[in-house]
Structure formats: C-alpha cells, structure tokens
C-alpha cells in the first residue's frame, strides 16, 4: 500500500512538471494590432495607384533598375541600386555617379560638363521611378486641387518633404491620376535647388505610355509641357526610354565607385 501511494505521488508530480514545461515553451502570438501599427501607412488612393502599376510589394522586391534615355548623340544609361540609391548615369561624353557618400563627375573627353552634377545625377531616376518613388520615407501627403486638361479632370495627391530630406526638401509635387484606371497621368513639380526658396511655379510632365517590366508598369515615354498660369498647355518635348530592366540581383558595388580622373561635386 505504501509503494502504491508513493508511485501515485511521483506520477502526479511528474505530470505537473510536464504541464508547467509545456506552458512555458508556448510563445504568445503577436497581436494583430501591433502588426498593423508597424506597417507604414499610405493614403488609400495612393495604394490604388501603386496597385494599378503592379504593386508596391513587387517594386520593393527589386534591387536594381536600369534604363536608357534615348538621345541623338547616344543614349544616357542610368543604373541604380534601389535599396541604397547609389547611382551611375553613363553618357557618351560624361559619367556622373553617387557612391552613397560623394557625387562625382568624370569628363570622358576634352569637353567639360556644364550642368550641376548634384542636381542632375538622380533627376531622371526620380521622374522615371514614379509613382513608386513616392513611397519613400520623409514624405508628407496632402490634398490637391484637380487638374483639368482638354475637358478631362484628373484628381491629385500633393507631395511635400520633411525638412532635410534630399538635396531640395522644399520641392513639392502633385501626382495626378486617371480616376477610372488609377494610373498616373501627370506630375506637377516645383524646383527649389537653385534658389533655395519655395516656389509657386509649376512644371509638368505627362505619363501616357507605360511598358510592362517584370510585372510593373514603368514609363515608355515622358512628355514635358509648356505652362500658362500653372496649367499645362502644349507638349514641348518627349523623352523615350528603352532597354529597361528591373532585377532582384544586387548590382556590383564597384560600379558606383569614384573612377580615376573624376572630380567630387561640391
């Protein structure tokens, strides 16, 4: 009888230990509320625009973007690491790049580059990466009056930047979209790089022709427009883009290094 009682007590103790051990090992599930809080929020309309162009998740899965802007004297080829924004713009007579620290310029011949490397080096990348570039950190979203052009109304989303973001945090943009397809159709923007002061003068680019690149809709052409009273009037030029490639492969870091004979932009 004593042995049976001892055996019963031993089994009971072991059973309690196992239950306690099982309760300790089990990890609590993260709450849905915390998961939602940790996600970056975008305006609902902007998310629809991202989706109409292939989706922000697809864009974020890519590590590099290369495109060629067609020019009469030879194409300008831009390659960008999408994660750290290191960039190379390879032109027939010059090359401009950023290694993440310095912006550099290399003249390939005797003709000197007359522009501003700090202004130009990522300018076309920024325009070309619309609308996905508008998911960057440091952006403030707001309402904008719609654009009416040739009898059609395009709703808009105003884009401004937190102080200190980029070379020209005072720049402002308005993305105008097709209310039926939610595809981007216009971009209005101000330029503050040279004056360092806020500007009310709008410039316009029109996005009408899109090409499918790895499941994303990226520009095949981009048109600049003359303006009157901050409204586009007629097309003044059109840029064409070819050999566009998005890749999940990380570009070779040495591509963006300062080459021999280059100068650092001041």
Structural summary, described in words:
This protein is α+β, with helices and mostly antiparallel strands and 266 residues long. The chain has one domain: outer membrane lipoprotein receptor (LolB), chain A (Clam). 20% of the residues lie in helices and 36% in strands. It contains 6 helices and 15 strands. It has helices at residues 2-25, 32-37, 44-52, 56-60, 117-120, 123-128, and strands spanning 64-69, 76-81, 87-90, 94-98, 103-107, 139-149, 152-161, 173-177, 184-189, 203-206, 210-213, 216-219, 221-228, 231-247, 263-264. The strands form 2 sheets. Strands 6-7-8-9-10-13-14-1-2-3-4-5-15 form a 13-stranded antiparallel beta sheet. A two-stranded antiparallel sheet has the order 11-12. The longest helix is centred in the first third of the chain and has 24 residues, at 2-25. The radius of gyration is 27 Å and the shape is globular. The chain starts with a helix and ends with a strand.
């Amino acid at each position: 009888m004593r042995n049976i009682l001892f055996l019963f007590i031993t089994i009971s103790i072991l059973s309690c230990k196992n239950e306690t051990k099982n309760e300790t090992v089990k990890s609590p599930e993260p709450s849905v509320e915390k998961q939602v809080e940790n996600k970056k929020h975008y305006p609902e309309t902007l998310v629809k625009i991202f989706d109409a162009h292939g989706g922000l998740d697809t864009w974020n899965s890519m590590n590099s973007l290369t495109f060629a802007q067609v020019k009469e004297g030879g194409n300008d080829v831009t390659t960008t690491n999408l994660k750290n924004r290191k960039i190379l713009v390879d032109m027939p007579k010059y090359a401009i790049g950023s290694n993440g620290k310095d912006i550099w310029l290399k003249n390939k011949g005797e003709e000197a580059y007359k522009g501003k490397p700090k202004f130009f080096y990522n300018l076309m990348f920024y325009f070309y990466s619309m609308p996905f570039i508008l998911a960057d950190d440091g952006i403030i979203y707001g309402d904008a009056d719609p654009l009416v052009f040739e009898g059609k109304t395009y709703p808009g989303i105003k884009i401004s930047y937190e102080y200190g973001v980029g070379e020209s945090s005072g720049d402002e943009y308005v993305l105008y979209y097709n209310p039926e397809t939610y595809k981007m159709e216009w971009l209005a923007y101000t330029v503050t790089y040279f004056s360092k002061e806020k500007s009310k003068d709008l410039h316009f680019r029109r996005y009408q022709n899109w090409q499918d690149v790895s499941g994303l809709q990226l520009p095949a052409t981009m048109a600049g427009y003359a303006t009157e009273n901050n409204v586009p009037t007629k097309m003044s030029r059109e840029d064409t883009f070819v050999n566009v490639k998005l890749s999940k492969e990380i570009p070779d870091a040495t591509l963006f290094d300062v080459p021999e004979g280059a100068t650092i932009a001041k």
